[in-house]
Amino acid sequence: MEAWITTLLQTLSLPEYGLGTAFVVAFVSATLLPLGSEPVVFGLVKLNPELFWPAIGVATLGNTLGGMVSWAMGWGAHALIDRERGHPTHLRAVDWLERFGPKACLLAWLPVVGDPLCLVAGWLKFPPLACACYMAIGKFLRYLMLTWGLLWASQGMQLPGWLLKAAG
Q: Do residues 156 and 136 make contact, with C-beta atoms less than 8 angstroms apart?
């Protein structure tokens, strides 16, 4: 069994499968399911440094689309969420979200609160395109900073010159 898992993980890290794996894991992790995509993206880039930008792009796309699934769930979940109306925490959160509008979706990358934030943005019927754009910006910056930072901090991994120039 252990050999099978090792073989599966090695196969999924191959460039021809790795980007698809990063997309699926990033998509699922942006829904309300508890899953983190950063280790997958980091592992893919660590094994295939030439896939840095494609991995960041694919993970951002998958995570943004997953966030939009949460947004759509919120759009259709009025009855469930309406039961909590009047609760002090609910009122503060809704007031805050209504004040910032779709720009609040920049924070969709945050652990614990990011996925429900997308759901509530849909429930409040914020414009989907604006929400998707703000989600994508926040998620892209998260993947870029986390992956770059982990690569920089990991032993034995030197960042390519072009990446150092792009980072700054």
A: no
Task: Give the range of the structural domain holding residue 69, as residue numbers without chain letter.
Answer: 2-158
57 burial via Cβ count (<10 Å: 0-12, 13-18, 19+):
middle
The pLDDT assigned to 111 comes to 80
> What distance in Å separates the CA atoms of residue 7 and residue 13, rounded to the nearest whole number?
10
CB 46 within 8 A of CB 157: yes
Tell me the CA distances in angstroms from 34 to 27, 103, 112, 127, one per residue in order: 12, 24, 9, 26
Contact (Cβ atoms closer than 8 angstroms) between residue 108 and residue 117: yes
Is residue 87 assigned to a domain? yes
- Does 164 fall in a domain? no
Query: Is 134 a domain residue?
Result: yes
Largest CA distance in the chain: 55
Predicted model pTM = 0.68
For the stretch 47-98, pLDDT in tens is: 888 889 999 999 999 999 999 998 888 877 765 656 655 555 556 767 778 8
Number of domains in the chain: 1
Q: Counting beta carbons within 10 angstroms of the beta carbon of residue 44, is it exposed (0 to 12), middle (13 to 18) or buried (19 or more)?
A: buried
168 within a domain of the structure (yes/no): no
